[in-house]
Amino acid sequence: NYVGGHDTMSFCDSHANAGCHGKEDKVLAVPNQPFGMSTDQTSYPFRILPFDGILGLAPSGSKGSVVHQLKEAQALDRNVLGVYLSEDTHRSGSVSFGGVETAHIAKHSPLHWHKISNNSEWLVGMKDILVNGEPLNVCKDRPGGICPAVVDTGSSLVTGPKAEIDSLLSKIRTNDTCGNLDKMPTVSLQLVDKDGQVVNYPLTSEEYTLRTLEEVPNTGDSGYFQEFPVLGKGGTAPQVQPHCEPGIGVMDVPGKKWVIGDTFLRRYYSIYDDDKGLVGFVRSVHPDETPAPAGAAAGPGG
């Protein structure tokens, strides 16, 4: 169950005004923003999720979006968002309102713009998926040979309809213990830019694979006194081992849309220009990252 309402939302510069305790001229106010608040929900999975809610940043044609309210209030000189997603969950990402943060953009990397199909979602055209440069022809049966693809920072994975994405999943079977990553192929998304040209966006196996550390069952012993664990010295630590799975999956949604989620958006800094109806992608740079090898950046497709 939920209730709805409206309120003023405030965004503050995390560098100059963290916590919104500083000067008011460092606050971006979003007046009359629609809210929905849950009043009753299941414990699982919400109890374990590391967030409190969802912030809608669809284009201004979606009236519930923060972008719509910002545009109505003329709060920004340019209605542009820049989004950086960290490759490490322990490091912060960033959202920039009104511009971009060049510190998160890899030097000398090309920026490509893609026209959105309507003014209520960041929907772009996808031509195909390449595996080590070989086309899978996943969109060959779509009108014009183009699949609709929604760019969504709120989605964890790159997903597509089962009938189209199965051919990709069969080529990126990940070893549970991450032992075959060096043998996995490069996967490239082919997107159509604003001029009708095809742009390839490559992802290495390290980039499209989700890696976690998991405790090995029945290993380690902290020691117990009756039913209570003994703290401090003594006992042995449990073994941990890496676990890997693809950051690409099946999701059948209305309109048979693909979803370009965080698996892709961690590698490419994304820019959302509501004034011009464009989405831009440029290679991001992460802390301590080595320079990209030749050919790793996005480039024209065949």
Fold and architecture overview:
Helices cover 8% and strands 35% of the residues. It has 302 residues and is mainly beta. Strands 6, 7, 8, 9, 10, 11, 16, 17 and 20 form a nine-stranded mixed sheet that branches. A five-stranded antiparallel sheet has the order 4-3-18-19-5, with no helix packed on it. The longest helix is centred in the middle third of the chain and has 8 residues, at 162-169. The chain is globular and about 65 Å long.
What is shown here, in short?
By secondary structure, the chain is mostly beta strands. 8% of the residues lie in helices and 35% in strands. The protein starts with a strand and ends with a strand.
Sequence-ordered SSE layout with sheet pairings:
Elements: E1 2-12, E2 27-38, H1 66-72, E3 80-84, E4 94-97, E5 112-115, E6 123-131, E7 134-135, E8 147-151, E9 158-160, H2 162-169, E10 187-192, E11 198-203, H3 205-208, E12 209-215, E13 224-225, E14 228-229, E15 240-246, E16 248-250, E17 258-260, H4 262-265, E18 268-273, E19 278-283, E20 299-300
Parallel strand pairs: 8-17, 9-16
Antiparallel strand pairs: 1-2, 3-4, 3-18, 5-19, 6-7, 6-8, 6-10, 9-17, 10-11, 11-20, 12-15, 13-14, 18-19
SS element count, helices: 4
Tell me the β content: 25-35%
Task: Give the overall shape.
Answer: globular
Largest sheet, in brief, is:
9 strands, mixed
Tell me the Rg in angstroms. Answer: 22 Å
Q: Please write the string of helix (H) and strand (E) elements.
A: EEHEEEEEEEHEEHEEEEEEHEEE
Q: Give the helix level as a range of percent.
A: under 10%
Distance between the termini: 50 Å
What do the pLDDT scores average to? 89
Secondary-structure class: mainly beta
Task: List low-pLDDT spans.
Answer: none
Number of E-state strands: 20
